[in-house]
């Protein structure tokens, strides 16, 4: 979602949430999604000029017992939360990219058949953008 002209990220998020509440959306709590980037360790690359692959490891408060890993141009893996411990043990194969943790935190709203999540995307201490997720869940 683009940041409103002349407004900060936080001001734009507050503007969006006020609009949702004026429509009649009800707060359903909060959510958090984080993503950490890993790259192939240099020791595992065979020939020079070969580029490493990226892997993104994500956690979602909507699925507290799961951890998601997405390989660049490859498969997706769903594991339990102990996958992070495995990644520490695989540091010879995958290394965490420096300052690569991105997090989205915000509020969940229920509006008729829709679940709307509005959050602030942060990387380190600074806000980088706004995320809006809309999920359609028909009641019939």
From TrEMBL:
Gene from which this protein is expressed: MED20
Subcellular location: Nucleus
Pfam families registered for this protein in UniProt: Med20
Assembly and binders: Component of the Mediator complex, which is composed of MED1, MED4, MED6, MED7, MED8, MED9, MED10, MED11, MED12, MED13, MED13L, MED14, MED15, MED16, MED17, MED18, MED19, MED20, MED21, MED22, MED23, MED24, MED25, MED26, MED27, MED29, MED30, MED31, CCNC, CDK8 and CDC2L6/CDK11. The MED12, MED13, CCNC and CDK8 subunits form a distinct module termed the CDK8 module. Mediator containing the CDK8 module is less active than Mediator lacking this module in supporting transcriptional activation.
Transmembrane segments: none
GO terms under cellular component: mediator complex
GO biological process: regulation of transcription by RNA polymerase II
Top-level division of the source organism's lineage: Eukaryota
Protein name from the UniProt record: Mediator of RNA polymerase II transcription subunit 20
Alphabetized GO MF terms: transcription coregulator activity
Predominant place of localization: nucleus
UniProt entry tagged with the keyword Translocase: no
Keyword Nucleus: yes
Purpose: Component of the Mediator complex, a coactivator involved in the regulated transcription of nearly all RNA polymerase II-dependent genes. Mediator functions as a bridge to convey information from gene-specific regulatory proteins to the basal RNA polymerase II transcription machinery. Mediator is recruited to promoters by direct interactions with regulatory proteins and serves as a scaffold for the assembly of a functional preinitiation complex with RNA polymerase II and the general transcription factors.
Organism of this sequence: Pan troglodytes (Chimpanzee)
Entry's family note: Belongs to the Mediator complex subunit 20 family.
Keywords in alphabetical order: Activator, Nucleus, Transcription, Transcription regulation
